[in-house]
Design a protein that fits this description.
single chain; alpha/beta; 5-stranded parallel beta sheet; 10 strands; about 10% strand
């Protein structure tokens, strides 16, 4: 077996090539040779002279030169050409060019670094370099001598791709193909390769030039031409939304909710690192940030909508459909989720190497109104969701909030009692009675707020969601992360084998989130300040804390805080 995997840059040919030589046990000529033939003519000569030995594979960007076609026919070299959506292909080239490692295989891409997508430099690159690369793929398609493999298919349905290749390469050996792909992608993946919803958001000027140079062969292979006008962009997004619903209508929604500074970010990162979860954070659709209306309340006000619905033809024909407002809100929420995920290009966003089965969303609550509106709205929009409510000792919440305010004040170069108090404590001076009184008043206000927020959300959550509501304590997560993460994933219906949980816990650990600090090592300028429980004892005595947090004491005992 002799296999040549070719295609244009960023089409995934090296990923497919590595998969095939590992899977079939082929010699990798890219590694064993001192240097690859520099062009198609040189490769043709290399093949004719017997250099392409049996049981080997080569992967590089070669054109369908007549001499190469003839040499391949004579020596039985099987040619596989990777092809990819040309619009996403260009964007990935652009992303490669602007990444730290660049794109050495195409030296001309250095011109793209730091350039706006509609700049004269980029448009010239499309006309004179990218168009030539597109022609390489089109010529292989026209030759009829290459098996054309869609990058989108082998990234998302690798087993199906192997079935397509079977008549040429034979049946693939029985190996763990998904695990093999994961190992390969750790080295190669960049861009939107694994995102079937990818919306390139290319500027109109760039789209116009791309449409001028994309060969007809790409559209014959099933890729859709993108309109450079507003209508074309809108149609593309609506098709993307339809695909989102088709692919993920059954995806489990998990809402991660808690009082601000209670560990919602940590919870979010735990779900973010699960391979089957697409995670978003704080879209602020349901809650009321800073006393403002939530987006849904502003766009679909109860009274306004009810008045319109009753007087419209819809309401006249179907007056009993009183839940239409919430159906529209859910559609809007799903559409905004699709838009948020479709434009993310790296593994930090939507891109996953395993099937997406769950969508998690972080919501931080800051007022009792937030708590009430959020849980009631979620139940109306997503009665099929699962709710994870994280709580934390309100005394530590207050301390964390104080340092959060301290960090913000310091960044703005503002001074007040909080900055004075924290500075004095950090310097070892804990003697100011006046500042301690201010701290007590500050903590007392947080106690009242925490009591309302956590109490309302907990009791309403249990009532409205029953077994689909889970309470988790920050302190338990800190003390036994593996056990608690296993519990969380079991509740959500996610896979939770021991190694997966260990990997997730490590990736979302305080050390990783804080870029190297151990829990307990304080950095007052960091969002991830200290990562411990019981820090309140450095600011209040147990006796004082009992008085200051008296308004929250009953709920604290319910949650196990003494």
């Amino acid at each position: 077996m002799r296999v040549l995997v070719t295609g244009q840059p960023a089409s995934g040919l090296f990923i497919l090539g590595e998969l095939l030589y590992r899977l079939y046990g082929l010699e990798n000529l890219n590694v064993s040779l001192d240097s690859l033939p520099e062009d198609s003519s040189a490769l043709a000569q290399f093949i004719q002279e017997g250099g392409f030995s049996d049981g080997s594979l080569m992967a590089w960007h070669y054109s369908a030169d007549p001499a190469l076609l003839e040499a391949s026919r004579q020596q039985g070299v099987q040619v596989v050409c990777t092809v990819r959506d040309p619009y996403i292909l260009f964007e990935t080239v652009y992303l490669h060019a602007n990444s730290p490692r660049g794109m050495p295989a195409v030296p001309e891409t250095t011109r793209l670094k730091g350039e706006d997508m509609e700049s004269a430099v980029v448009l010239d690159f499309i006309h004179n370099v990218f168009s030539r690369q597109l022609r390489l793929t089109a010529d292989w398609q026209a030759s009829g001598q290459a098996l054309m493999v869609h990058q989108e298919q082998f990234m998302l349905e690798v087993e199906r791709t192997l079935e397509v290749l079977e008549p040429v390469l034979g049946k693939a050996p029985d190996k763990d193909v998904p695990a093999l792909m994961n190992a390969i992608l750790e080295k190669h993946a960049l861009g939107s390769a694994l995102n079937p919803l990818s919306d390139s958001r290319l500027p109109a000027g760039t789209l116009q030039v791309l449409n001028e140079v994309i060969p007809q062969a790409f559209f014959e292979l099933g890729y859709q031409k993108r309109g450079a006008d507003a209508q074309g962009s809108m149609n593309q997004r609506m098709l993307g939304m339809a695909l989102f619903q088709q692919l993920y209508a059954g995806g489990q929604r998990v809402f991660l909710v808690g009082h601000g500074k209670s560990g919602t970010t940590w919870l979010h990162m735990l779900f973010f690192h699960h391979p089957n979860v697409a995670a978003v954070a704080e879209r602020r659709l349901f809650e009321h940030p800073d006393q403002n209306k939530a987006l849904f309340d502003a766009l679909l006000d109860d009274e306004t909508f009810e008045s319109w619905f009753q007087s419209s033809s819809f309401g006249i024909k179907a007056p009993e459909q009183t839940d239409v407002r919430y159906e529209l809100m859910r559609l809007m929420s799903d559409y905004l989720l699709y838009r948020a995920l479709a434009v993310r290009k790296t593994a930090k966003g939507f891109e996953r190497r395993e099937p997406i089965t769950h969508f998690s969303e972080k919501i931080a609550l800051n007022t009792d109104q937030d708590a009430r509106v959020t849980i009631d709205t979620l139940q109306k929009l997503y009665p099929d969701a699962k709710i994870v409510h994280i709580v934390r000792d309100p005394r530590d919440v207050a301390v964390s909030a104080m340092f959060h305010s301290y960090r913000n004040f310091r960044e703005k170069h503002e001074r007040n009692w909080i900055t004075d108090f924290v500075d004095s404590v950090l310097e070892g001076d804990n003697s100011s009675i006046l500042k301690k009184q201010a701290v007590s008043a500050y903590f007392k206000s947080h106690a009242r707020a925490w009591n309302k927020i956590a109490g309302i959300f907990h009791h309403r959550g249990e009532t409205l969601y029953g077994d689909n509501y889970l309470l988790v304590r920050y302190e338990d997560l800190l003390a036994a992360p593996q056990d608690q993460v296993t519990r969380l994933f079991r509740f959500a219906g996610l896979s939770r084998d021991e190694q997966l949980v260990a990997d997730v816990v490590e990736k979302a650990s305080f050390k990783n989130l804080s870029k190297g600090r151990k829990a307990g090592q304080q950095d007052s300028s960091s969002f991830y300040r200290k990562g411990v429980a019981g820090d309140w004892k450095n600011y209040l005595t147990p006796e004082t804390s009992r008085k200051v947090f008296s308004d929250a004491w009953e709920l604290m005992q319910l949650f196990g805080y003494e």
